[in-house]
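Second opinion, please. Please look over this fold, written as C-alpha cells:

===
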Amino acid sequence: MKKMSVLVAAFALLGFTAVDAQAQTNPTQNAQQTQTAEQGQNKEKISPEDLPDAVKAAVVTDEYKEWQIGEVYKLKPAEDGEQVLYEVQFLKEGEQEPVLVRFDETGKKVTS
C-alpha cells in the first residue's frame, strides 16, 4: 500500500509538471497569435532575401548595421487597400529579446 501511495504521488508530480510547462509556453504563443489577429493581418515567415529591395536597403543602414537579422515576416493586410508590412526581428548584441521593426514596401519604418 505504501508503494502504491509513492507511485501515485510520483505520477501526480509528473502531471503537474507537464501542465505547468504547457501553461508557461502557451501564453507566449497565444499572445503572438492574438497580437497578429488584433492587427488584422496574416503573418507569413519569409527569408531576408525575399524582402523588397527598398526594405533590404533599409535594414543595412547605419541604424541597424551592428544588428543581426533574425526572423522576417510579411504581414498581409486583412482588407483591400491596406499596405503590406514587413516585420524584421533584429538580434542586438548583449540583448536576449529581439528588437522588432516594421517597414512598409518602400523601406520606411512604420510605428504603430
Q: What stands out?
A: The first strand starts at residue 41 and ends at 46. Residues 67 and 93 are 7 Å apart (CA to CA). Residues 6-39 have pLDDT under 50 and may be disordered. The radius of gyration is 21 Å.
